[in-house]
Amino acid sequence: MSKAPAAEWAARGERSNLLALRLMAWIATTLGRPLARGLLHPIALYFLGTASAPRRHSRRFLARALGRPARWHEVYRHFHAFAATVLDRVYFVRGRMQAFDIRIHGVEHVDATLAEGRGAFLLGAHIGSFEALHAIGETRPGLRVKMVMYPDNARKIHRVLQALAPAFQLGIIGIGRSGSTLEIRDELDRGGLVGLLGDRFLAGDAREARHGGSALLPFLGAPARFTDGPFRLALLLRRRVIFMVALYHGGRRYEVRFLPLADFRTPPAEPAGREQALREALQAYVAQLEALAREAPLNWFNFFDYWGDDARREA
Hints:
Layout: H1 4-11, H2 18-31, H3 33-38, H4 40-50, H5 52-66, H6 72-93, E1 101-105, H7 107-116, E2 120-124, H8 135-139, E3 145-149, H9 151-164, E4 172-174, H10 180-189, E5 193-197, E6 214-219, E7 222-227, H11 229-237, E8 240-248, E9 253-263, H12 271-295, H13 309-314
Parallel strand pairs: 1-9, 2-5, 2-8, 3-4, 3-5
Antiparallel strand pairs: 6-7, 8-9
C-alpha cells in the first residue's frame, strides 16, 4: 500500500486560518452559541461545494460505514458535524461545560488507574471531539492529562486553541526527539495520564523500534494501515491502555466513553508472547474504531485518502 495517505494528512495544514478562528471565537462568546451554530450551515455548504478532495473522501468513508452509497445530504451532515465540534472547542477550552449535556461512561476505569498511582495511556482517534474529554477534569480536579504528538503538530494545535482561548494551555510531550520516552515515563510515574491518537500512520513512526511499525488490518471492508507504536510504548513502560472517545450526538449532546483496551503491567516474558499481546491489542483498537465508525459515522474526522484509493489509481 502506498504511503501517500500518510503524506497527505501530514503535509496538509488546517484549512481554517487563525483570523477566521478568532472571528468564530468572538461570535461564539459575544453573540452566543445559537447564532454561531446558525453560521455552520453556510460554512458546511461552502465546504461541500468547494472542498472536492474532502468531499470525495467523506463519500467513500460513509459508503463503507453505511454499507451503501452515501447521499449528498449525508456528506453535508458529515461536514456540519465536524464544523459543530470545531465551534464547540471555543466553549470547551474556555471551561464552559455547563453549555452542554455530557454523559460520561466508563470513568471507573480512569478512577482505578488514578487510585493505583502509576498512570496510564489514553488512546483515542480522530473521532468526535477531543476537547469534550476535558469534561472529565471538571469532576476530578487533580487529573492531569498530557498529549503525546509530533512537535510541528503540537505547535499548530496549540496556536489554534489559543486563538480560541488565549489563556488555554495544552499539556504536550513532544515525540520523535531525544528524551521523549523518559518524559512520558516520568509523567506516568507522577500518576498522570498520557494521551495519544492512534488512527493515523506516519512513515516516520517506524524510525525507532520502541515507536513501533505498522500493519495492514481489515477496516470497514478494506485493508488500512495502523501503527502499533502506542502499544509498544505502553509495553515498554508496563502500563494500562484505556480507549477514549467523546462522540457528538447533535445539538448540545456529547457522550464520553472510556474502555479498557490493553494491560501491559505484567507482560509475557517471551518475545513471541509480547508480540502476540501487541497484535491482539492493535486488533482490539481497530475493532473498536470500526464499531464506532458504524455506530456514529458522522463523528469520523479523517477527511483524507485513508485507504489509499487515489494512490492505487495513480500507481
